[in-house]
Each structure stands twice: as structure tokens, then as C-alpha cells.
Write a structure and sequence with these properties.
The protein has helices at residues 5-15, 19-51, 56-78. By secondary structure, the protein is mainly α. The longest helix has 33 residues, at 19-51.
Length: 79
């Protein structure tokens, strides 16, 4: 549901920026947080695997799930 012209102008007058800018901010924030989380998860898996504390059978699916989760979130948020 989109805003009417009156609602858009009222939003811009009250907030000082258009509603599309807040949408872009939300999308950017969601993607950035998910990518940071995935990078942390992949790095943690690598560090555990490299030190021998984590088996490859556990580390590889965790990395694949992290990347897949970021891709799914990106599809939902950017569509």
C-alpha cells in the first residue's frame, strides 16, 4: 500500500526527507547487519576448523547456511 500525494507531502514536511529515503535506510541497514553477521559466522567457523576445535562436517554446513540465509534475506528485502 503506497501513500497518497497528501500523505507523502505531510511525511516530507514532518520528517524533512521523503519516505523512500527511510525505506532505503532500512534496506541498507538490514543487508549490512546480515552480511556482518554472516562474516562473523564464517570467520568463527574457519577459526574453529583451523585450530582443530570444529570438525569439517559441522563447519561446512554452518557456512553454507549462513550464506544461504543472507541470500534469502536479500531476496525478500530487495524485492
Amino acid at each position: 500500500m503506497s501513500m497518497s500525494g497528501t500523505q507523502s507531502s505531510a511525511f516530507k514536511a514532518a520528517a524533512g526527507f521523503p519516505a523512500s529515503a527511510s525505506y532505503s535506510l532500512f534496506v541498507g541497514f538490514a543487508i549490512a547487519i546480515s552480511l556482518l553477521w554472516a562474516a562473523w559466522a564464517v570467520y568463527s567457523c574457519y577459526r574453529g576448523w583451523a585450530t582443530g576445535n570444529l570438525d569439517r562436517v559441522i563447519a561446512l554446513p554452518a557456512v553454507i547456511r549462513s550464506v544461504a540465509l543472507c541470500l534469502i534475506l536479500a531476496v525478500f528485502v530487495l524485492s
